[in-house]
Recover the amino acids of this structure.
């Protein structure tokens, strides 16, 4: 005991003296001692059940007391000391992990699901302007019919114009897409000569004109450098056969006494075949006919072309051709449907190789002249030959 404790006043009630352990919970603040009168009126604090009177276990050497609750947040509460007691007496009640909201508490607004747009079914389309196509078709039909039944020579002029324009379209596309320079001048002159010779001299005149046209193509190309000579003259010979020579058979049909009706039957059957293929294929077509060549053509469309052409052939041969019968018309219609389809596929093969959709843009809704001649050109020699077999050359 040091000297400073001598003469010190006795400790008052409720006061603990200084301690080496530091301040103790419940100690009165430092300062003058409390009056004894007030000390007697002070009521002791009630002791909470389960809690030590002096605040529980002592902590480290600082003397601070630790409550019975968890030291860290993630430590589970110590419920063993409160089993069987009133839960309200627990100083630290366990907080539920997923508390349920109060009945009267406002609930957060739930986002309303947005309606998803429904995919619209794709409507089948023709792929062309049908109004323009029908208008142009009617105009061409009027020109053809007027020239056929007024002056036959005028219709020969129509064939020549179609041949020259078709050759121009074909040679232009070959040069643009493949760099092939088929000479147009000898092709155009020789093509016109073939048509006229076929009308005047028949098949003999057509073959002679074809030979002379081929020779003119070979000579004309010699005026340019030899690079590409072989492919250019080969393309020229192909163009001469494909366009004017096949068109010559239309002129030879016109030579007969009933030549105008024969040409009209040829045109009707070809158009009806194409129409039947389109109508049936657009409505019922499912099985592709030649997907690598023309994805739009179907086997159902081919059956439609055959059916339409056979019916039209029977009617035309019975009522429009002298000496014709309906069963001949059935065979004629079947052959026209097949040849027209093959001709269409043949030009589709050419256009796919060139990487184009149409040969030209001269006819709105149709493309170019060659896009209308594709099924007519290979059908012309077939119809000419069958008519000669059935009813003679006239």
């Amino acid at each position: 005991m040091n000297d400073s404790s001598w003469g010190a006043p006795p400790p008052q009630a409720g006061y603990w003296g200084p301690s080496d352990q530091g301040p103790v919970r419940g100690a009165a603040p430092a300062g003058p001692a409390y009056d004894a009168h007030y000390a007697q009126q002070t009521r002791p604090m009630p002791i909470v059940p389960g809690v030590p009177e002096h605040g529980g276990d002592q902590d480290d050497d600082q003397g601070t007391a630790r409550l019975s609750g968890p030291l860290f947040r993630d430590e589970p509460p110590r419920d063993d000391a409160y089993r069987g007691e009133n839960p309200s007496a627990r100083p630290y009640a366990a907080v539920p992990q997923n508390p349920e909201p109060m009945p009267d508490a406002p609930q957060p607004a739930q986002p309303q699901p947005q309606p998803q747009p429904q995919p619209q079914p794709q409507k089948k389309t023709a792929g062309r302007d049908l109004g323009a196509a029908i208008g142009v078709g009617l105009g061409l039909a009027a020109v053809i019919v007027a020239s056929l039944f007024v002056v036959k020579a005028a219709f020969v002029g129509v064939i020549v114009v179609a041949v020259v324009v078709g050759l121009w379209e074909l040679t232009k596309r070959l040069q643009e897409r493949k760099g092939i320079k088929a000479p147009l001048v000898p092709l155009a002159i020789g093509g016109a000569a073939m048509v006229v010779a076929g009308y005047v001299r028949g098949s003999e005149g057509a073959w002679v004109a074809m030979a002379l046209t081929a020779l003119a193509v070979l000579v004309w190309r010699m005026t340019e450098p030899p690079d590409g000579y072989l492919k250019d003259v080969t393309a020229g010979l192909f163009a001469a056969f494909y366009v004017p020579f096949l068109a010559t058979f239309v002129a030879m049909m016109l030579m007969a006494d009933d030549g105008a009706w024969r040409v009209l039957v040829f045109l009707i059957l070809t158009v009806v075949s194409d129409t039947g293929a389109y109508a049936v294929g657009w409505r019922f077509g499912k099985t592709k006919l030649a997907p690598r060549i023309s994805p739009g053509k179907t086997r159902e469309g081919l059956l439609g072309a055959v059916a339409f052409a056979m019916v039209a052939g029977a009617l035309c041969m019975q009522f429009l051709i002298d000496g014709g019968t309906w069963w001949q018309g059935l065979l004629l219609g079947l052959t026209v449907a097949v040849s027209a389809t093959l001709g269409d596929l043949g030009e589709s093969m050419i256009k796919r190789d060139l990487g184009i959709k149409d040969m030209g843009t001269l006819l709105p809704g149709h493309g170019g002249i060659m896009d209308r001649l594709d099924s007519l050109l290979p059908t012309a020699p077939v119809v000419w030959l069958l008519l000669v077999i059935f009813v003679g050359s006239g």
Strands lie at 288-290, 294-298. Residues 23 and 63 are 8 Å apart (CA to CA). The chain has a mean pLDDT of 79. The longest strand covers residues 294-298.
